């Protein structure tokens, strides 16, 4: 299958073609560049829901329940489950795969695990590209489930239109011990395992500690859910849609999406600098000369850096780039 055929099949929503396209991008194979360029023009329609929370809080069970609700209304749904690189939580991901196989025969549902590849934030580097592919393939809703460890909450908020934080009562969860930053990234909360003791009390504590966003005026709602039997899930989805509508009305959606595209551009710039531009600059004779001056203490490193930055201005247009 050549790139043009693959593009056509992805646009037609063919599952195998989508998987193949994502794999190509994950491996950053050369073909991935052309493929992505062609698909990118067809993106910008999907609604992206990020889901984070501690391991075991019930994220995958909630995702499963939300898929059911969305399928009932005929919407096509894709899920990207970010595999933690940590072996500790590895088992949960295997469980996810098994659970989500319930949708295996449904062509309106696409589920894919992606390795986080050790990037600090825990979000796979290829996630944003995979998002675009699923968007081009016509999935109306894309859910990204990520484990609430490390920086991943902050990353997921940057990758999503709406960020759902899943919490549970008990297990030492209290507002005081909550991870820093989690309140800031949440557009809404699911207080899952509402069947457990202390759920209402925890919901009240959480509500008391939340304030409306000073710029947008949005106050994150808290929805009590019981993912295992579906209680509260219709209310949760309604709250998600309310946030989406709010974003649309206030221009927040456009702003968030622009931010994502900005990040994508800058990440591509950084990648190019790191893998191509800087290695080739530092291999050149001009750099060796600079280095010699710095070694002789006649030039300070920061001043040498200024010279190197000057070379960048002409890169790669100039043939005689050092
Ligand atoms: N009691 C109770 N257990 C739940 C609920 N939702 C999920 N669980 C259980 O919590 C465990 C972890 O769920 P999972 O969805 O894998 O959590 P994840 O690691 O956040 O994706 C599983 O055994 C679920 O059956 C709930 O509402 N109530
Ligand atoms: Mg999970």
Write the layout of secondary structure elements.
Layout: H1 3-11, H2 15-26, H3 30-40, E1 47-53, H4 59-72, E2 77-83, H5 90-100, E3 109-115, H6 127-136, E4 141-145, H7 152-159, E5 162-167, H8 182-185, E6 188-191, H9 199-209, E7 222-224, H10 233-250, H11 252-283, H12 285-295, H13 301-314
Parallel strand pairs: 1-4, 1-5, 2-3, 2-4, 5-6, 6-7
Helix pairs in contact: 1-2, 1-3, 2-6
The structure holds guanosine-5'-diphosphate and magnesium ion.
Guanosine-5'-diphosphate is lined by residues 53, 55-61, 92, 95, 192-193, 195-196, 226-228.
Give a description of the structure.
This protein is α/β, with parallel strands linked by helices. The protein is 51% helix and 12% strand. It has 13 helices and seven strands. The chain has a seven-stranded parallel β-sheet, sandwiched between helices. Strand 2 (77-83), helix 5 and strand 3 (109-115) form a beta-alpha-beta unit. The chain is globular and about 70 Å long. Mean pLDDT is 85; it is low at 86-92, 118-122 and 317-322. Bound molecules: guanosine-5'-diphosphate and magnesium ion. Residues 53, 55-61, 92, 95, 192-193, 195-196, 226-228 line the site of guanosine-5'-diphosphate.
């Amino acid at each position: 299958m050549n790139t043009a055929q693959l593009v056509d099949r992805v646009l037609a929503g063919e599952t195998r073609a989508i998987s193949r396209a994502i794999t190509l991008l994950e491996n950053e194979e050369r073909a991935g560049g052309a493929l992505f360029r062609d698909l990118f023009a067809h993106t910008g329609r999907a609604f992206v829901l990020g889901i984070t929370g501690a391991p075991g809080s019930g994220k995958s069970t909630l995702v499963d329940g939300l898929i059911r609700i969305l399928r009932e209304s005929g919407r096509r749904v894709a899920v990207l489950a970010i595999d933690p690189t940590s072996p500790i939580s590895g088992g949960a991901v295997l469980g996810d795969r098994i659970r989500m196989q319930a949708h295996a025969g449904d062509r309106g549902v696409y589920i894919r695990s992606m390795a986080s590849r050790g990037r600090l934030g825990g979000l796979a580097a290829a996630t944003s590209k995979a998002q675009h592919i699923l968007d081009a393939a016509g999935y109306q809703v894309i859910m990204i489930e990520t484990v609430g460890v490390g920086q991943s909450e902050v990353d997921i908020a940057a990758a999503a239109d709406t960020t759902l934080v899943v919490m549970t009562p008990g297990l030492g969860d209290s507002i005081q011990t909550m991870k820093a930053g989690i309140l800031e990234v949440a557009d809404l909360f699911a207080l899952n395992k509402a069947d457990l003791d202390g759920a209402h009390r925890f919901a009240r504590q959480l509500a008391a500690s939340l304030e409306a966003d000073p710029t947008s005026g949005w106050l994150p709602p808290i929805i009590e859910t019981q993912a295992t039997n579906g209680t509260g899930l219709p209310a949760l989805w309604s709250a998600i849609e309310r946030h989406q509508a709010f974003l649309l009305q206030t221009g927040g959606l456009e702003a968030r999406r622009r931010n994502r595209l900005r990040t994508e551009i800058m990440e591509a710039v950084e990648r190019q600098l790191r893998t191509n531009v800087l290695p080739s600059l530092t291999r050149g004779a001009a750099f060796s000369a600079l280095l010699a001056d710095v070694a002789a203490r006649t030039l300070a490193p920061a001043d040498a850096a200024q010279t190197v930055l000057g070379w960048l201005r002409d890169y790669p247009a100039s043939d005689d780039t050092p």
